[in-house]
Amino acid sequence: MSTPTTLTHLIDIASLHAGLIERLFACADYLRQQPGLPAGVAEQLRHVHAVNMFYENSTRTQLGFEVAARQLGLHISNLQSEQSSSVKGESLTDTFHTLVAMGYRLFNIRHPQVGSAQQLAALAPEGVHIINAGDGVHAHPTQALADAYTMRDHFGQVAGLKVVIAGDLRHSRVARSNIALLNLLDAAEIRLVAPPEMDLQPAPGHAAVRSYQHLEDALPGADVVMLLRIQMERMDELEIPDRETYLRQWGLTPERMRLAGADARIMHPGPLNRGLEIDGALADGAQSLILRQVQLGVFVRMAVMLTMLAPQQSWPQNHESC
Length: 322
What we know:
Elements: H1 18-33, H2 39-45, E1 49-54, H3 60-72, E2 75-80, H4 92-102, E3 104-111, H5 116-123, E4 129-135, H6 141-155, E5 162-166, H7 173-184, E6 189-193, E7 209-212, H8 215-218, E8 224-227, H9 235-238, H10 243-250, H11 254-260, E9 265-267, H12 280-283, H13 290-309
Parallel strand pairs: 1-2, 1-3, 3-4, 5-6, 5-8, 6-7, 8-9
Helix pairs in contact: 1-13, 3-13, 6-7, 6-13
């Protein structure tokens, strides 16, 4: 059975395959290099209305989608839960149907309920596209794509890399999406480290996944050390009295980073807690790719939206297309 070359919805990493991911990354490369889109494609996008439907707080993802949409020439609106009719009792699906009736064609949805993006995708009429910007602890596919694209940008490829993912694995949709994507892209090892109360149970059954009890054991030979945000309200679960104690026991310190080596790079999907999961000097240091993730994430989100809205047949002949 042939694999699809177009993208209708992006719900999770299972929505993708290696060939489509490479097309998205090549499209992001193209968008970084070109001053603009072909006239016909730009005209096609000029009439598209998109909306960020965010039922959870966000800075990087929501504004990243907004900047990406504006760069493509889309009309972008922001709908946040406290400003929507959901405060009056309107359901997510009724809000969705209302916005479709208004003419919105592209929905970037973040919602605390697992499966919310899939629910809207099942209801979407032809020509309407859903991008999952985070549904509960399930998935955050564009963040994982941005992370892998950043690794590709720095190292040349993802295949063969040894990646440490450390922090609150249990509650992290970013971790789940990254594990699935890194496995799909043939990372050599995905090393998972978390306090026992925050570990993934059961651990993902990918051949490349290894679980470690101590960060020190996972760091030697790592190419990438990715930290995850520790939610302050979950500190009580750990029975750890303060930030300094967590950093000393589980966080990334300069001493620990030396175990990975000078060529290793630090990543964090944000927002980061300085002095908790990562020492502030490391976040700002020469080995950090944290702001590069943010920068490249805009182009990845542009590529995802463009691939949905302007399929290959709408591009000029003999023109490099997304």
